[in-house]
Write a structure and sequence with these properties.
With about 500 residues, the chain is of the alpha+beta class. The protein has two domains: about 230 residues, no CATH class; about 210 residues, Alpha-Beta Complex (Aminoglycoside 3'-phosphotransferase, Chain: A, domain 2), CATH 3.90.1200.10. The chain is built from twelve helices and 18 strands. It has a seven-stranded antiparallel sheet with strand order 6-7-12-13-10-9-8. Strands 1, 2, 3, 4, 5 and 11 form a six-stranded antiparallel sheet that branches. Strands 14-17-18 form a three-stranded antiparallel sheet. A hairpin with a 2-residue loop joins strand 17 and strand 18. The protein is globular, with a radius of gyration of 24 Å. It binds adenosine-5'-diphosphate and the ligand O=P(O)(O)O[C@H]1O[C@H](CO)[C@@H](O[C@H]2O[C@H](CO)[C@@H](O)[C@H](O)[C@H]2O)[C@H](O)[C@H]1O. The site of adenosine-5'-diphosphate has 19 residues, from strand 13.
């Protein structure tokens, strides 16, 4: 717990924020902070506004952006500065029930002692947020703007929010924070924010407006316009160039959803329990789900191609981009080195393909981004690859990148099950390896056949193989950094792909 003086207010009427040093300790304690373990400093705290809709006895919700810099990057690095959103519920009295979410206690020159808690944990703060989204629906154009016009709550028509619900913060390894309002709505508060449109909001808005059945409908979103930078280019990574920052989105809560990754793991376990059966005979056979998932992705891609710009890029450029990702990947994950030649040869074949069609895609698709509901599969989280800068995540890309992401996930599922299964039953490893391959191949084949509505051409196969390899390389780096004990999963795939 921190108890100290605050940063001074700037006469803007907003409450003071706690000292930036508080955020260094706080960020390290959260699940969602992406810079854990790196040498860093919080060089400033920007107070972007308070959420309208506060009620007597309830908290004031102060939205803060913590400016984080790292000591392990050169001064020329474009992503030297990152902004993390920390909404703080402010109370005049300590709140024992929120002790676990306490950020700091500090003095405000105008308001006296303030006790600040992570607002996502506080039902009073979340109710305040929901009321603002609700009020937006009856404002002109569906927009509720705060007093100094810097925060704007936007609503899409078509759904009345249930204000009687209680909020529940999702737990789990997520890069943002999601809060369910009963079974009515889900609010995702973006943690690492960049100036410009958020791809998740943008894609959900487009697909919701055309009534796509394959995503959770978007109900609204929250923008912040930096008053000092109004009118800048809003498709930029440069915090200095101004424009809009999208801070949160509100969408349909999928009540009957089961996580696609969990379903796949159960299906694999079912097969491992009865290895004498073929995958098609096991109770939890995944082929039907893989087929339906393939059709869903096909539909989503068709809508994205219809409602976002489409173009083509020369195969040589695609090949060069993939090859260009190799050297930094090799530096981060040296285990890739022995497969370099095989990978380079595979990428080079893409150079002979002529023009490759591109449009907006998901960008980081895997089973954990799919939800099976009573009404079919839904695809979530259109933010793209977390490590890519915003402008790259907004660029058109080949739909085969998403297909490859799913194929890699079908490969991961049995290998992840095997990791724990082998601890109890090391003897059966060889049999399970064969069953794992059977499960993965069956799921991949059904998914791919449904996605392509038939067999794919040799050219498409070349492109798909290259995207699968590109993804496995990315995963090798991802696992090296985040889950080093899992790195053999993608590395084994790279070895198989890169074999001469
Ligand atoms: N509309 C929804 N309804 C119910 N659960 C959802 C919905 N959208 C996402 N989820 C669940 O919330 C979790 C986090 O969502 P996701 O968009 O992947 O967040 P993050 O950007 O933090 O990774 C997912 O694992 C998914 O199970
Ligand atoms: O969900 P995110 O957008 O944060 O994606 C990142 O984390 C994923 C792990 O949760 C990672 O996915 C990899 O592991 C999955 C199993 O946990 C597996 O199903 C995927 O196929 C595999 O890529 C993803 O790559 C990363 O960007």
């Amino acid at each position: 717990m921190s108890d100290q003086t605050s940063t001074p207010t700037s006469g803007d009427g907003l409450p003071a924020a706690p000292d930036p040093q508080v955020f260094v300790e706080y960020l390290a304690r959260t699940r969602w902070f992406g810079g854990k373990g790196r040498p860093l400093a919080v060089t400033g705290v920007r107070r972007v506004g308070t959420v309208p809709g506060a009620v007597p006895g309830g908290p004031l919700v102060l939205l803060c952006l913590a400016e984080v810099t790292y000591d392990d990057v050169g001064p020329e690095a474009p992503d030297k500065v990152e902004h993390y959103q920390v909404p703080i519920a402010l109370y005049g009295e300590a709140q024992e029930r929120l002790e676990h979410a306490h950020i700091a206690t500090w003095e405000d020159p105008a308001r006296g002692r303030l006790h600040g808690y992570d607002a996502l944990h506080d039902r009073g703060a979340m109710a305040c947020w929901l009321r603002s989204f609700d009020r937006a629906a009856t404002e002109p154009g569906g927009n509720l703007v705060d007093d100094d016009s810097s925060l704007a709550f936007h609503r899409l028509p078509g759904h009345d929010l249930d204000l009687e619900t209680h909020s529940t913060l999702f737990s789990g390894e997520q890069s943002n924070s999601s809060v369910a309002f009963g079974e009515d709505a889900l609010m995702k508060v973006f943690r690492k924010v960049t100036p410009g449109v958020n791809p998740d909001v943008q894609v959900h808005e487009v697909l919701s407006r055309v009534g796509s059945p394959d995503v959770a409908a978007l109900y609204g979103w929250l923008d912040w316009v930096d008053p000092e930078q109004r009118g800048g280019d809003d498709h930029t990574d440069d915090p200095g160039s101004g424009g809009v920052m999208q801070l949160a989105m509100l969408q349909q809560f999928l009540r009957t959803a089961s996580d696609g990754w969990d379903l796949a793991l159960s299906s694999v376990r079912d097969l491992f329990r009865q290895p004498e059966l073929h995958a098609s005979e096991a109770g939890g056979d995944f082929a039907g789900e893989a087929t339906r998932l393939g059709r869903t992705l096909r539909e989503v891609h068709a809508l994205m191609a219809e409602h976002f710009p489409t173009s083509t890029v020369p195969g040589a450029d695609v090949a060069a981009t993939m090859a260009g990702r190799l050297p930094p990947a090799l530096a981060a994950a040296p285990g890739l080195e022995e497969h370099r030649a095989g990978l380079e040869a595979l990428f080079a074949r893409v150079g002979d393909l002529g023009e490759v069609p591109v449009h907006r895609v998901h960008g980081d698709l895997h089973l954990g981004q799919t939800l099976r509901t009573a009404l079919g599969w839904k695809i979530v989280d259109f933010e793209g690859e977390p490590a890519k800068p915003l402008h790259e995540r907004l660029l058109p890309d080949s739909p085969w990148r998403d297909v490859a992401g799913m194929l890699r996930s079908f490969d991961y599922a049995p290998r992840v099950v095997e990791r724990t299964w082998a601890e109890d039953d090391p003897e059966g490893s060889e049999v399970r390896a064969a069953k794992a391959a059977e499960w993965a191949n069956r799921s991949k084949n059904h998914f791919l056949y449904a996605y392509a509505d038939g067999d794919i051409s040799d050219q498409q196969r070349t492109l798909l193989d290259a995207y699968v390899a590109d993804k496995a390389v990315y995963e090798t780096v991802y696992e090296t950094r985040n889950r080093p004990t899992w790195v053999d999963i993608p590395l084994q795939a790279v070895a198989e792909i890169g074999a001469p």
